[in-house]
From TrEMBL:
<feature type="domain" description="RRM">
    <location>
        <begin position="2"/>
        <end position="57"/>
    </location>
</feature>
<feature type="domain" description="DM1">
    <location>
        <begin position="78"/>
        <end position="185"/>
    </location>
</feature>
<dbReference type="InterPro" id="IPR040224">
    <property type="entry name" value="RDM1"/>
</dbReference>
<dbReference type="GO" id="GO:0006310">
    <property type="term" value="P:DNA recombination"/>
</dbReference>
<dbReference type="InterPro" id="IPR057652">
    <property type="entry name" value="DSRM_RDM1"/>
</dbReference>
<dbReference type="GO" id="GO:0005730">
    <property type="term" value="C:nucleolus"/>
</dbReference>
<dbReference type="InterPro" id="IPR000504">
    <property type="entry name" value="RRM_dom"/>
</dbReference>
<protein>
    <submittedName>
        <fullName>RDM1 protein</fullName>
    </submittedName>
</protein>
<dbReference type="GO" id="GO:0003723">
    <property type="term" value="F:RNA binding"/>
</dbReference>
<dbReference type="InterPro" id="IPR042525">
    <property type="entry name" value="Rad52_Rad59_Rad22_sf"/>
</dbReference>
<dbReference type="Pfam" id="PF00076">
    <property type="entry name" value="RRM_1"/>
</dbReference>
<dbReference type="GO" id="GO:0006302">
    <property type="term" value="P:double-strand break repair"/>
</dbReference>
<dbReference type="Pfam" id="PF25517">
    <property type="entry name" value="DSRM_RDM1"/>
</dbReference>
Amino acid sequence: QRSLFSVFSTFGPLYSVRAHRNAAVAGPGYYAIIKFYSAGDAGRAQRACNGQRLFQKSPLKVCVCTKQKGFQQQVLALSSNKCQELANHYLGFNGWSSRIITLQNVSGFDGESKELGETLQKRWVKYLCAVEVTLPNHGVRSRGVALGEAELEKSEDPLELLTASKRAQKLAAGKALSSAFQKILLVVLENGKVAVEYNSTQEELTDSLTEEELKGLVQVNPVDI
């Protein structure tokens, strides 16, 4: 996998690299599935690497997968880590920034479940987070709002409460950052330049609120995202 990543990452950022052993009926060897963020990068990699001896004696057969069978129509959102990876690659580390507008504790009892005739209450730590992403060179701003939660098994344990709170805060901040990036379109041109557009079709009701309306009455503590 390291050799595959080293070769194919030269054509553009990779979403994932997976190497698998061939089926028994196919004989000894391996096959790999390499996912690019960009179809253009994938096409260039296929044309350049197909039939070449990249890091082994026999030439590789490289194909572009075009089958859609088994894939859902719904497009899954990228994680916050993947969004930051793409932003750093195409915009540069100084080409974008993010800030937390508000991080609110909205915890409460999530309901009751019965077991062996006893009523048990499960408590969850919940945080609501709003994040703004700014692309100063392109004049684009985007907001994302998300909920992060973590379950408490021992609600009276202060250490567990602290750990669960940090976990819920980080999850909420990451999901909100991902939500903000989903409204930003990066258009990569053939000459390597990047154009940026704001996708208003992905706007949510919270995008129309002012910062004061989002902040509410809760004091915000900084959290690394």
